[in-house]
Every structure is written in C-alpha cells, then in structure tokens.
Amino acid sequence: MSNATAEAAEAWPACALASRFDVAVFSSVLGIGKPDPRIYLAAAEALGAAPADCVFVGDGADGELAGAAAVGMRVVRTVEHKDTDPTWPGPVIQALHDLDDCPV
Q: What is the pLDDT of residues 50-87, one digit of tens each?
C-alpha cells in the first residue's frame, strides 16, 4: 500500500517490482491514505487475509507504523532507504532481505 499519486498508481503495473506483489493498494485510488485504518483494512481484504495475519513493513512516514498496528497488523520498521520513525518500539530491520530473520 502506498500514499502515492494517481500517476504512480497508473505506472505500477509496468514497474519491475509489480510482479513481486500479490496486490497493490494506492491512496489515490481509494481516496484515503495512511494512517487511516481503512487503507490497511482494504489491503488485508484484497489479500483475503485478516489484519492479524498481515505483516506491515515501512519506514514510518505518515504515521504508517502506528496505523498498521492499530488495526492489528504485525509491524516491522525498515531503515533501508529512510528512517522516518526512529522512536518506533517494535522490530527493526536494516534491509528487506532481513525479514527472513525478523521475529514477527
């Protein structure tokens, strides 16, 4: 899920990363953004999963970590590209490949 522009959402299917994701949820499409609980719930629903069965990974921008935790998702902060919420008390990974070793 992303707080992204309509242009980013339109370009997503052609992006090399798109094939690595089962679903993509964009704020510009839904008209709501992080940390609104509805965007997290929409992502879980699109996956056919309960929020408690989802792991949200983010750098903390826009209050996204607390938003994901508020709907019951397990949350991991990544500092690989940007560290926006250094006070987050939960698990932290240095890079996405570290998810394999993360205790969530």
A: 999 999 999 998 899 999 999 999 999 999 888 788 88
Terminal C-alpha separation, the chain: 19
- Residue 102: CB atoms within 10 A of its CB come to 14
- 40, exposed or middle or buried, with CB in 10 Å at 0-12, 13-18, 19+? buried
Q: Which residues contact 42 (CB under 8 A, 6 or more apart)?
A: 1, 25, 30, 32
Q: What is the pTM of this model?
A: 0.87
Check: CB of residue 91 under 8 Å from CB of residue 77: yes
Strand partners, 14: none
Q: Is the dihedral of CA 86, 18, 101, 38 positive or negative?
A: positive
